[in-house]
Amino acid sequence: MREYSRPPVAGVPAGENVADIVTRRAAQDPDSVMLRRQRTDGEWVDITAAQFRDDVYRLAKGLVAAGMEPGDRVAILSHTRYEWTVFDFAAWSVGIVVVPIYETSSAEQAEWILSDTAAKAVFVETEDFERLIAQASGRLTHLQYLWRIDLHLHDLMAAGTHIGDDVVARLTRTAHAASLATIIYTSGTTGRSKGCEITHENLLSVARNVMQGPMKSMIDIDNPSTILFLPLAHVFARFVQICCLECDVVLGHQGDLGQLLPALASFQPTFVLAVPRVFEKVYNTAEQKAITEGKSKIFRKAVDAAVAYSAGLDTPNGPSLGVKIQRAIFDKLVYGKLRAALGGKATCALSGGAALNPRLGHFFQGIGVPIYEGYGLTESTAPLSVNGPGALRVGSVGRPIPGVTAHIAGDGEILVSGKTVIPSYWRNDQATMDAFSQGGWYKTGDIGMIDDDGYLFITGRKKEILVTSGGKNVSPTLLEDRLRSNLLISQCMVVGDGQPFIGALITIDEETFGPWKERLGKPARATVADLRNDPDLEDAIQAAVDDANAAVSRAESIRKFRILDGDFTQEGGHLSAKLGIKRNVISRDFAADIQALYSPIPAQYDSRFRPGEPAWRGGAGDRDFSSGRQGIR
């Protein structure tokens, strides 16, 4: 199938904007719980619709008192927290455009965003963030205010007490559906980041068509709720925030990932939203615990049973009786503990931002928490497509949401159109022209296919396709997804463009490295650098590479890998806000490691490699292999 679309299930009137959610909810049911806010002692406090409206209005009046006007840009640099949501809706209530800055941004990146948008004010969360902005404040001629949330928020609210509610109501109407609501900058994996102009219609259209469409049954329950821990600077989290407040889902915030599991346990959400790496961590933590307790065999059998059960759901007769019995046994021994780690009440999860390993998807569906994987971009205001209850095809990113049309171009690129797609990039006509085809389609840059039932599958990234010196086109994402599912591997990047074979850079997960050393009798203080050439570590990583290679042809398989001393991190600039790898940055910073994979190369070692040839090694930390499972697609 080359094209698939569904009609919208909800529209956005021309005069409506996102801020209307606040006044509507407070008018309809002022005492209903709209959000929950966590106190310092860990307890959650209910925030009613009326209380939230009051907080929003107080801050909105403070912004007006400070001289902010409709159309002005005001930025925020903060971790995910209740005040961010208040700020969003306060700004929108008086026609202000919100400009988020990623908390991992460098001073140069933050300066570019503030300069490009001519922001008049910026909210920051911490003293470190304040210093980061202050470094450039002298060069930012438009910047009038630098406010610390904990120091200045209450004072700003107090400064607007003389302004009436009628002023806020009047300013709210200065924004309509087509008005600019927020400018979200792309993570900047290549070149200078571009500002995506996201309108009120974009935000409301995607929220309504997802939650009244494929996800309707997920919220048609008593007291639906979720906890938001993704960065609110990212479009996925902003979409989730608006979905919850628009559709009567109680929303909580947790900006410290180190406190995520305790927060899930106390908040007890009915569904969870995360990027794949979070689900990988939950799985790997459970596996590590089982290994430490000497229950690894039981855990692996439980995993196999869950995967078999999930895969059986796609067959005409369903899972076999034997698989059902196994699943029932393991439900008490293993699965219940994993569901408890998510709070105990979660019946499903949403995943976006990167590809979810299909086996992981089958596993979570098998334990009773199906993960509905979706696909989208900042330019599409988050999901373009999504799986959902009763319409889940593991391995796909679901069908296009109502109101979106997906089309596969002749070269395999996914093109999309609909009310959720941004109109343009901020002050960048050339980028806008480059991103849209003459027919008005947005060019995603991703390669994919649509099956006969309309499910979309992502098979690669147009700009990330590696072409070996032998002319073989290789999509690195499948190999990388398989590698990251291994307990010991934290991050990886597949390389080989213009080279005779495919290689990989691999980092070790520090959380599982310690127990692994203890189990195999390695020195407790030994670092990854100390053990890069350790045969046991090399064998463990080779097993993961063998598993990844089982999914591809010989010409696409990883022939050599290199274990790096450290990890890829957001702080180091190697991961984007959605925890995706920045290939150009990693290629630059680890150029010597990549070169070591290919130098020296024996004359006979080229793309005509066949399994069974003698193995060879490169420099320290490299591992090359010539046998093992070789999958043929």
Descriptive account of the structure:
- This protein has 633 residues and is an alpha/beta fold.
- 37% of the residues lie in helices and 20% in strands.
- The strands form eight sheets. It has a five-stranded antiparallel sheet. Strands 12-13-14-15-16 form a five-stranded mixed sheet. A four-stranded parallel sheet has the order 5-4-6-7, with helices on both faces.
- Helix 8 crosses helix 10 (235-246) and helix 12 (276-292) runs antiparallel to helix 13.
- The protein starts with a strand and ends in a 9-residue tail after the last strand.
How would the global form be characterised?
A: globular
Multimerization status: single chain
* N- to C-terminal distance: 21 Å
Helix run count: 21
Mean pLDDT, to the nearest integer, reads: 89
What is the C-alpha radius of gyration, as a whole number of Å? 25 Å
Protein structure class: alpha/beta
Strand order of the largest sheet: 1-17-18-19-20
Residue windows where pLDDT falls under 50 for at least 5 positions: 601-633
Strand content: 15-25%
**For the report, how would you describe the main beta sheet?**
5 strands, antiparallel
Q: Kindly state the number of beta strands.
A: 26
Helix content: 25-40%
Topology:
Elements: E1 3-5, H1 20-28, E2 33-38, E3 44-48, H2 49-65, E4 73-77, H3 82-93, E5 97-101, H4 107-117, E6 121-124, H5 127-134, E7 145-148, H6 149-159, H7 165-172, E8 180-185, E9 195-199, H8 200-211, H9 216-219, E10 225-228, H10 235-246, E11 250-253, H11 260-267, E12 271-274, H12 276-292, H13 296-312, H14 321-341, E13 348-351, H15 358-366, E14 371-377, E15 382-386, E16 399-400, E17 404-408, E18 413-418, H16 429-435, E19 442-450, E20 456-461, E21 466-467, E22 473-474, H17 476-484, E23 489-495, E24 502-508, H18 510-520, H19 535-549, E25 558-563, H20 583-589, H21 591-598, E26 622-624
Parallel strand pairs: 4-5, 4-6, 6-7, 10-11, 12-13, 13-14, 24-25
Antiparallel strand pairs: 1-17, 2-3, 8-9, 14-15, 15-16, 17-18, 18-19, 19-20, 21-22, 23-24, 25-26
Helix pairs in contact: 1-2, 2-3, 2-6, 8-10, 12-13, 12-18, 13-14, 13-15, 17-19
